[in-house]
Amino acid sequence: MTQISTSTDVTDQVPEVPGSGTTERVALSPQASELLVTLTDIHGPLMFHQSGGCCDGSAPMCYPDGEFKIGGQDVHLGDLKVEGLEKPIGFYMSASQFEYWKHTHLTVDVVKGRGSGFSVEAPEGVRFIIRSRLFSDDEWRALEGR
Amino acid sequence: MATYAAPGTDGSVVSFKPRYDHYIGGEYVAPAKGQYFENPTPQTGQVFTEVARGTAEDVEKALDAAHAAAPAWGKTSVGERANILNKAADRIEANLEKIAVAESWENGKAVRETLVADIPLAIDHLRYFAGAIRAQEGHLSQIDEDTVAYHFHEPLGVVGQIIPWNFPILMAIWKLAPALAAGNAVVLKPAEQTPASIHVLMDVIGDLLPPGVLNIVNGFGVEAGKPLASSPRIRKIAFTGETTTGRLISQYASENLIPVTLELGGKSPNVFFDDVSSQNDAFYDKALEGFAMFALNQGEVCTCPSRALIQGGIYDEFLSQAVKRTEQVKQGNPLDTDTMIGAQASNDQYEKILSYIDIGRQEGAKILTGGEKADLGGDLSGGYYIQPTVFEGNNSMRIFQEEIFGPVVSVAKFSDYNDAISIANDTLYGLGAAVWSRDTNTAYRAGRDIQAGRVWVNNYHAYPAHAAFGGYKQSGIGRENHKMMLDHYQQTKNLLVSYSENAQGFF
C-alpha cells in the first residue's frame, strides 16, 4: 500500500489484515447478496463497517460507500463480490476490535428487524447480522502465513 | 401480584393511538412524505400502532420550531424552568402505571422494572435537574483592582438527541432533563424500535412546555437520524448506541464543529473476591443477586455485568450457587408483576443474541444454564424470549469481548488481585464494573484500578441522578446524570469588565 492515491480515498491506505486475498475472512449469505443488490439500486455503491458496543453493536453497519470515513485505526477484511454489482463491497472493522475477532470467519446474513443506527437496510424491515464460525486449523495456518 | 391487561384489550391502563405523527411546535404533524412504519410489541410480535417515518423535511420543520422557541426559552428564569420540570415529574408520577405499562408493551421488558425502576428514576431525574439548575451559580474572578471576569452559564441553543431503545423513556429523560433545565430547545429522535411510548409520555406532559421547546421526529436512523445529526442547525448532538454509529456521528459533528456526547456501551466486569464467601449471610446473598443482575432488563443495558470474574478460592461453590440464583429468575408474561425477565426488544436483537450463544459454544465455552430460546406459549409464542444464560470460558473468547446485549453472562476464574484487574481491564470498553469484597481496602483499590467510568462497590445497577455516568476507553465521551451534565448543555460566557477610567497605555 505504498502507492499514494491522488483522490482523497484513504481506504487505499488502510491496512489489509493478514491473509486477506488468500483465505476468505468475510462472506455473504445468498439473502444478504440479494438485499445488497436492492440497496445498491436505492443508495448507490455500499460499504460495511462492523460495529461494537451497546444496543445495535456487534452488528455490521452498511453505508453508502465513503459515507463513513475509514481511517488509520481500521482494517480491511475483504471485498465482498455480489452477483449483479460491478464493484465489490468493502468490509472494514476497527483494528482494536479485529484483535478479538481475528480467529473467526464472518458471514453477513439478514434477519427481519429494525436495527438502529444509520445502516441503510433498516427501513426495508430487515437487519444485517453476523454469523460466525471458527477458522479451521488449515485456514488458520494459511492466514498466519505458516 | 397482578397481571396488567394488554394494551388494546379491555381493562388496559393505557391505550395507544392507532397512529403517531411527529410532535413539532407543540402539535402533531404528519410526515412530509406521508409514510408510516409498523411498530410491533416484542411481547407477542404483533403490530400495535404505526409511526411517522420521518425524513430530512420533517427534521427541518422540527428545527424551525426549535429555533423559533429557543431564544425565549433560554431567557426564562431558572425558577420557571425548574417549576416546569417539577410539574412534569408530578404528572408522570400521577400516571405511573399507564406509562410503565406502555413502555413494557413497546420494549418487551417486565412491567415490574418499569414500575419500580425506569419510570420512578425518570421522575427523580426531572426533580434532580429542577433542583440543580436553581442551585447552579456562575463565577467571578477579580483579575486586579479594576478588572473583573464574570462567568455566566448560557444555553447552547438548539440541540439534537438520539435515544436508544433499551430504556425508551428513562434514556430520553436522562438527556432531556439537563438540556431543558439549562434552557435549550431540543429535537429528539426516539429509536425506531421504541418510537411510541414517548408519545404516551407527551400526552401527559406535552402541554407544560412552550411549543417548540421539545420536538420529536420519529423514523429510521438513515432517514431521520442522519439529517438531524449532520445538521448545521444544531449546537450539539447527544447519542447513545454503538461504536460505528458513534464514530459516524462524531464525523458529522466534526464537519459542523459542534460538541458530541456519546454513550457507546461496554463489557462490564463483575468481580467477586474470595472474602465474599467468608460468611453465609445477607451480604453473601446480596453478592449472589449481584451476579444475577446480568438478567436485568433482559441484559439490554449498556452496563450489563456480562463478565463475571470469580476468585479461585470460592469459584466452584460461588458459581454453583450463582447458577441456582439465575435459575430462579422467573421468565414469563412481561405484564405480570411477578415476572422478572421479559422479551428481547426486537427480532434482530433476538437473532443476534442467539448468534452469540452459537459462537460461544463453538469457541468451547461451557453452558452452565440456559443457552436456548424460550417459548412461553399462547400469544407470547410470537415474542422474543431467551433464557438467562451462564457461560463458563476465558476472556479471549468473543462472548467475553463483545456486548451481546442479552441475558448472557460469561464467567471466568482469576487467581489474585493483579489477575483480576488485568482481566477486568482486558476489554475495549470501560463503562461499568463492580467489585465485591468485605475488605474495604481491596474494594477501594480495585474500584480505582478498573478502567471504567462507573464502578459499583458491593452493589450493581443502581442509577441515582446525582452519580455521574459515562465511559472510559471506547465506551464514549462525556457523562450523563449528575449536575456536571449541565456543562454538556451550556456555553460559558465570560464578560471581562474594566472598571478603570484610564487608557491601557498601548497607543
Q: How would you summarize this macromolecular structure in one to three sentences?
A:
With 146 residues, chain A is α/β, with parallel strands linked by helices.
Describe the structure.
- The complex is a heterodimer of chains A (146) and B (507).
- Chain A is α/β, with parallel strands linked by helices.
- Chain A has one domain (28-144): Sandwich (Hypothetical Protein Aq_1857, Chain: A), CATH 2.60.300.
- Helices cover 20% and strands 30% of the residues of chain A.
- Chain A is built from three helices and seven strands; from the N terminus they run βαββββαββα.
- The two termini of chain A are 22 Å apart.
- Chain B has helices spanning 56-74, 78-94, 96-107, 111-135, 168-181, 197-205, 221-229, 243-256, 282-292, 315-327, 347-362, 398-401, 417-425, 440-449, and strands spanning 19-20, 22-24, 27-29, 36-40, 47-52, 139-144, 147-155, 158-162, 185-189, 214-216, 237-240, 260-263, 269-272, 307-311, 366-369, 389-392, 408-414, 429-430, 432-436, 454-457, 472-473, 476-477, 490-498.
- By secondary structure, chain B is of the alpha/beta class.
- Chain B has two domains: 19-264, 3-Layer(aba) Sandwich (Aldehyde Dehydrogenase, Chain A, domain 1); 269-457, Aldehyde Dehydrogenase, Chain A, domain 2 (3-Layer(aba) Sandwich).
- In chain B, α14 (440-449) links the parallel β19 (432-436) and β20.
State the helix count of chain A.
3
Biggest β-sheet strands, sense, barrel of chain A: 4 strands, mixed
Poorly predicted parts of chain B = none
- Rg of chain B, Å, rounded: 24 Å
> In the CATH hierarchy, what is the class of chain A?
Mainly Beta
User: Structural class per helix/strand content of chain A?
Assistant: alpha/beta
* Biggest sheet character of chain B: 7 strands, mixed
Termini separation of chain A comes to 22 Å
Task: Indicate the overall shape of chain A.
Answer: globular
The count of β-strands of chain B is 23
In the CATH hierarchy, the architecture of chain A is Sandwich
Number-wise, the strands of chain A total 7
